[in-house]
Amino acid sequence: MVDLDTRLGPVVGKASADKLSKTFGMETVGDLLTHYPRRYVDLEQIDSFADLEVGQYVTFVAQVVDVKNIPFGPGGRKTRTQVRITDGRQYLNATFFNQRWIAKRTEVGSRQLFAGVVGEYRGQPQLTHPVIRELGDDNASFQRGIIPVYPATASISSWELERTIDTVLAVLDPLPDPLPGEFAEVRGWPDSTTALHWIHQPRGKGQWYTAQQRLRFDEAFALQTVFARRRHAFDTETAISRGWKAGGLADRFIDRLGFELTDGQKSVVADISQDLARPHPMHRLLQGEVGSGKTVVSLIAMLQVVDAGAQAALLAPTEVLATQHFHSITEQLGDLAKGGMLDGVEGATRVRLLTGAMGAKARKETLLDVISGEAGIVIGTHALLQEGVDFAELGLLVVDEQHRFGVEQRAVLVDRAEVTPHVLVMTATPIPRTVAMTVFGDLETSTLRELPRGRQPIQTTVISLAEHPSWLDRAWQRIREEVEKGRQAYVVTTRIGDGETASSADPAAAQPAALVDVFAALSEGPLAGLRLAMLHGRMPADEKDAQMAAFAAGETDVLVATTVIEVGVDVPNATVMVVLDADRFGLSQLHQLRGRIGRGEHAGLCLLVTDTAGDTLARERLDAVASTTDGFRIAQFDIDLRREGDVLGARQSGGRSSLKLLSVVRHERVIAEARDLAVRVVEQDPELSGLPALRRIVDELEASQQADYLERT
Fold first, then answer.
1. Distance of CA 319 to the CA centre of its chain
2. Greater pLDDT, 387 or 681
3. Are 639 and 430 in contact, with CB atoms under 8 Å apart?
């Protein structure tokens, strides 16, 4: 019996199997058959040589007139292979570089298939490195009229893959179907075995297009079933209900706020409050615009849990962010955070900070308050995850900037607690719905789009040094003008520079600007006389805290920093930001940085400096940021430009994305439909006993790294 789990060796031969394993990492029949064609050549719709356009993708069946290898370069070590072809009326050159074997395999007079993008050489159209294949009447795909073209390498061509796949399909046994039968039938989809034949051996566009639809849905359905089972498992777990306490700390905190919560904040607070009151653990994602008030919402949730007699932990990725959260929360709570102190009020709690850089005495005091339960809210970095950090009763875990933590790290505190705590995950990077459904599919999602009343507009301008080099001088002058009005500014660089090879001490240099060099150049040049300070991630914790405190207190005019200020930093008096080498930042990252200004009563100005002359994509990206302050639009534009593997976190995990046909960027409708079906299937059959093929796929997916890095993105 040959099924998807069958090893390739016995089916295609040891030599071929070894080659496929070494080249593509394929071990099983399933690995090979899910290596889908990336496009198809329809022999009934081939192009002619007439009306060629540069940049057009064309497919020709042509006769070879001449083939020759032409040496070039120093000592003639390089080779240009020129294949001259004709369609019977006109002639065209196909050119290959450093591929001598083309001349040996391409006979004059033979009929060949050519497919590629039309280029131009010395004013004449040509094909450079096209797909080339000899056509014969004995070729199966030639007879069918549709030729699949596979992702290939120099060692294994598309045609070799096609022959190998044909060999496997000829002996493949009927496969059990992962979809409920009636679901596929209603849509006119073939069963999974037929779909594999159609996608590799189509007899027309209708077959490969339908097969793609069916197999794409299979991928989405498997992923969403993983998440549906997780959500179902959460609902069967028990947690202690942490209901709202009338007149408690949460109520008193809301009454003291100097502003009214937005409608969006009120709605999310209500959703979270209901989740916390359930006897099952909450697993919710809170995402929102920069400055939309996620921290206030999470603080209300933490106070609700404290009112219920438990503790809340806020896990932050950096010491700067953890410290900022600590100062912000204690300031907002005032005497509500002074439990056991003379100036505390009745029912007050304590807020404690725990980081790796704390001294032994401060750490010991904090740990005592944590284990005794005196500290109702504990804010910390990875130090919270270390052995010896024991809570009296952890009721809620809030994870800020989830993408900075692995799922295993998040699980440390959850697994250590005697009773399963509720979990609230926050991200300051807006996530389009299709990505959220796939990346955070096991979490219920709350979104804050509305900005609090009083937030000031931010003007964003791109400064191209290639086009307007003098504009940077104006940027420094603009900072001086803001400082003269009593306001403050940020200057952001991509790297620190200490110990690195300095690119230049000139902030306007084309190389990536280093923090230490920029700081020195500004202090001695255009910003001389102003109070400047540096901030970066390698500084000792107490020094970072001191610099941030001084900037927040207005004792520093300009903070020259790396992206350590990207999230969580709240200085309302800062009104201008200059981002050097802005093209080296991600779009959402630029949006996060920009969100550090315009937080007070004055409008903000963000200047994105770039020196990428002629790089139209880089300029397009920066113009996209400048054109809108809507983080969701920017996030969508960002992922549209990224590889699918980047979106799913494959780069972080070191592995490849398991998705072959499904795009989390483009296929929102497919993902949403798959999610609905997965929920229905899991509700009726949590163990998937009625769909063993689906259970096998889900088990494999859960056992792979994919299940982990989907949550890390």
1. 23
2. 681
3. no
Residue found under tokens 């064609």: 37
Other C-beta atoms lying within 10 Å of the C-beta of residue 517: 23
Across the beta sheet with 283-288, what order do the strands follow? 350-354, 375-380, 311-315, 394-400, 422-427, 283-288, 444-448
**β-strand pairing of 78-86 with 57-72:** antiparallel
pTM for this one? 0.71
Domain 249-448 = CATH 3.40.50.300: yes
For 131-177, the pLDDT digits (tens) are 787 776 556 777 788 889 888 876 787 888 999 999 999 999 999 99
Nearby residues of 356 by Cβ (< 8 Å), 6 or more positions away:
319, 381, 382, 383, 541
> 596 — phi, psi (to 5°)?
-80, -15
Domain with CATH 2.40.50.140 in the chain: 39-149
39-149: CATH number: 2.40.50.140
- List CB contacts of 527: < 8 A, sequence separation 6 or more: 476, 479, 480, 558
Report whether pLDDT(501) > 80.
no
Q: What stretch(es) of the chain map to CATH 3.40.50.300?
A: 249-448, 458-628
| Rounded Cα gap, residues 245 and 306, in angstroms | 10
DSSP letter for 565, please. G
Cα–Cα dist 262/243, whole Å: 22
Q: Are 588 and 445 in contact (CB under 8 A)?
A: no
Burial of 170 (0-12, 13-18, 19+ CB in 10 A): exposed
405-461 pLDDT, tens per residue? Answer: 555 555 677 777 778 899 998 887 777 766 777 667 778 888 888 776 667 789 999
CATH class, 458-628 region: alpha beta
Residue 581 dihedral angles phi and psi, to the nearest 5°:
50, 45
How is residue 325 written in tokens? 């959260």
Measured CA to CA, the distance from residue 682 to residue 17 in angstroms comes to 37
Strand partners, 338: 350
